[in-house]
Amino acid sequence: MSASKTAIRFGLFGHCLALLVVTAFTNNLTAADIAWTNDPQHAVDVAHQSGRMILVSVGADWCHFCKKMERESWTDRSVAAIVARSYVPLRLQDEQHAELIRALGVHAFPTTLVFTADRRLVARVEGYVDASKLASLLDRAYVAARNGTPLESF
Prior knowledge:
- By secondary structure, the protein is α+β, with helices and mostly antiparallel strands.
- The protein has helices at 3-30, 40-50, 64-72, 77-86, 98-103, 131-147, and strands at 53-59, 87-93, 111-115, 121-126.
């Protein structure tokens, strides 16, 4: 094999390797990360200071549909963008926040709750919600709360 053919093959290999690395990093960026807090008082304080609403995701470690929602819905880029723009995200786990979860009247996992900054309940959804429905719910809840109108049933 001539030196020029070897150089071309190594050059192509290098370009393919670079493309693979860029693709791997880009794929990691597409799985959106929501900056959850697990401190209810912190969420209330931040919401009050920022004027954003409070989004509560209630789940349990043993809950299959909680994990499915984590993998498929909360990692969706459009959902994460809505959360970042309009909400203070709070995650409550059954084992760590059992008393608060009972006080909120949560009896099923997962449950998604939306509150205004002054802690008025705007939306409650029990069970798994796919990404497109979740994005719609979050948008509609935000608009309803800002306009002072009730949220249509979801």
